[in-house]
């Protein structure tokens, strides 16, 4: 009997656990440790923000998404000891044969100089709900969306957020009373995807009257005078401030001996194995360099996105199962990623490509349309469905739709 422990119950953790259950016999033990008993679907936080979803619609019991033979422990992971093949959670210690770390990235708004509770974010479940209330009561003025620092989860979410805020205020009939600006330290939207995609997204923002401010390194905020300060740049006044907070690895990673100089976990790009044998890291916590450079002075890293956590989880789970069964662990992560980019009015674009492409990532944006928005809705329904027939139904719809438009949907 082998014991596989998975740390984290987000996309990566759930897919790893279920995939292991599919490939291993019941004699082996699969344990998932996650602090929350409820699972919320992060891609739908944007819809919670603009009132298209309620909290109940995007939150389900974690166990409903997992196969029955998976043991779930709702505790905070307090220590990882890879040299002894042990982890500690709550008051207990657990030994493992294989460890998969899928703890994601923590938000660290406290790192922002001047941060207080008047500042909004839709990068959390509660934050998105709070922002919806504020937008509902907003009567006009300057709206500032600020990317505080790099890296951050879901490279398209800041731009989607700006467009959905614009759409919501337009539906309220106050668009002419509002100025919307998006500030980022990046040189263009989604720089990892290259100029073609960046210019396409910039064009969409321009058409919606959203002011895009690149190369703006956020320094601090004064919430009393409602002013933003950027390194070496003019100040900017706002009436409503929405921030994508700094991201960092969870504390347990930073004290485990697994973290690199930037706090994330270095892995083999193909197998996701860390420097420790039989210890893997997937999703937002993993640090994976990309080939080539769109910008000479800026090395590129694989974006922190759910689609990659999903694909990595499948690779790791299959390789662990093969190794346990005495087969060659030859599955490799290929970094073919995609994303539906919400643009408001029930429209979305579809970005897809090979992020390991040479000499640069090869990423393209399909024309905005309703079908991509419908695809994102179906994906949400599939993900939140309980394990069983209902999930299979939505999976079939998604894959059939993908074949009809010539894009393979891997789930």
Notes on the protein architecture:
With 411 residues, this protein is α/β, with parallel strands linked by helices. The protein has 3 domains: 3-105 and 249-333, FAD/NAD(P)-binding domain (3-Layer(bba) Sandwich); 108-246, FAD/NAD(P)-binding domain (3-Layer(bba) Sandwich), CATH 3.50.50; 334-411, no CATH class. It is built from 9 helices and 24 strands. It has helices at 11-23, 45-49, 125-137, 157-171, 195-207, 251-254, 306-324, 370-384, 389-404, and strands spanning 3-7, 29-33, 38-40, 59-61, 70-73, 77-81, 86-89, 92-95, 98-101, 106-107, 141-147, 178-183, 210-213, 218-222, 227-230, 236-237, 240-244, 247-248, 265-266, 279-281, 286-287, 336-344, 347-354, 362-369. Strands 5-2-1-9-20 form a 5-stranded parallel β-sheet, with helices on one face. Strands 13-12-11-17 form a 4-stranded parallel β-sheet. Strands 6-7-8 form a 3-stranded antiparallel β-sheet. α1 (11-23) links the parallel β1 (3-7) and β2.
Key structural traits:
411 residues, 9 helices, four-stranded parallel β-sheet, globular, 3 domains, FAD/NAD(P)-binding domain, 27% helix, alpha/beta, 24 strands, five-stranded parallel β-sheet
Short description:
The chain is an alpha/beta fold and 411 residues long. It contains 9 helices and 24 strands.
Task: Give start-end ranges of low-pLDDT stretches.
Answer: none
> CATH homologous superfamily of the largest domain, by name?
FAD/NAD(P)-binding domain
Q: Which sheet architecture does the biggest sheet show?
A: 5 strands, parallel
Strand content: 25-35%
Helix content: 25-40%
By CATH, the architecture of the largest domain is named 3-Layer(bba) Sandwich
How many domains, as an integer?
Answer: 3
Total number of β-strand segments? 24
Shape label: globular
Radius of gyration of CA atoms, rounded to a whole number: 21 Å
Average residue-wise pLDDT: 94
Strands ordered across the widest β-sheet? 5-2-1-9-20
Alpha-carbon distance between the two ends: 28 Å
Structural category is alpha/beta
